[in-house]
Amino acid sequence: MVSKNFYFQTIGRVVFITATSLMLAFLLVRENYVFSVLTLIALVLQASYLIKYVNETNRKIAYFFDAIKNEDFTLRFPEKLTLKSLEELNHSLNMLNEMIQKIHLKNQTQERFYQEILKQADIGILAINNKGHILFANPRLEHMLNYTPLNHIKQLSQIDENLYRVFSELKPFERRMFQLTNEREKIDLAIKSSSFNLDGQELLLVVIQDIHQELDEKETESWTKLIRVLTHEIMNSITPITSISDSILKYYEKGDINLENGIEYQKRLDNTIKGLEVIKDQGSNLLSFVESYRSLLNVPVPDKKIVLAQNLLEKVKLLVGQNQGFSNTSIELQIRTQDLELFIDEKQITQVLINLCKNALQSLSNQENSTIKLIAGLNNAGEKYIEVEDNGPGIPHELINEIFVPFFTTKNTGTGVGLSFSKQILRMHGGNLKVNSIPDRNTTFTLLF
Length: 449
Description:
- One of its GO terms (molecular function) is ATP binding.
- Pfam families: HATPase_c, PAS_8.
- Helix content is 53%, strand content 18%.
- It is of the alpha+beta class.
- Helix 1 runs antiparallel to helix 3.
- It starts with a helix and ends with a strand.
């Protein structure tokens, strides 16, 4: 409505100016100078009124936008005017001002709400621009680092030079671990980063979490699991030794051995020899167990070199195929990223893959159409991986968290250090070994590099 009134008002004034101009030309042609002067004055007045009308409208709109820009919502335009078009324009500007004011107040409320959430969050959050300026840091982060206010990442060098180096080298979607020691305590920080765009400016959003308590809990849990398994294995070896030793001692503590009774003496001697043989076997088992523990602790430093994934998997397939148990199991290779290269210790990773294939074969012993797949490629995070997948019965859910515990095993044979040893090798490569299992469908071990 306002635009239409303004349009018609402007058109009307232009039409009158045009008519007055034609009249002035006509009077000048007729040499009627007296009326020509009067017409010229009327033309000037009409032009000035048109300019004033347009300028007044433009000035109001300019005032309105300046007020909005400065977040000043107190500006009001009079709505009772003799000129209908200006009255409607003022009314519309006032309504628009009220609408923008409501939206602004709503946005401020939401902003305060989100800021309060960030303040109360139990993790540190900060936003960094490409010049290293810290645009936002919540109180939890400042308390965690014991430094306030944080304006630039260079300030982190005053806390810890290595911490500043981590942040200066941090890229989007990276994860880092850092142990910070200050006057108050020692904390373990998990640092995760992501990027987002704000008003055309690329920012790095960093989330920092103190996981010292979680690590302590995990460490305690790991020790509990390890001690439980160690106790079980040691007791299995020590109990027969103790029992048989006690029985042999009782033979000779009675003091009633009749050397003249050769049959009785030989019987006791045979039982003693059998008991000592059992003690020897149990002692050997215990020594093997301890040796397995030593091998787990003494993983050699990887001698890394660049290896083509295709060649590695073909070598593993050839080696595990020599086992007679693989005659009824097919081994498939899938290279999802052509010419994929791995910077690894070939011997160690080959040992890991063969161990995983043998474990898969044991789970497929009663499986028809059994298949083991060796898969290599790049995941969505750009990490290189190798997967060992089988279509066996899977791993029970309650055992998933136990299989990497040293000496834990569900088999009648073996020491139970294979998977924990393999995981240790992957960690020394800067990677990880993960498992995913769906009962009665498949089991996948993933080597991440």
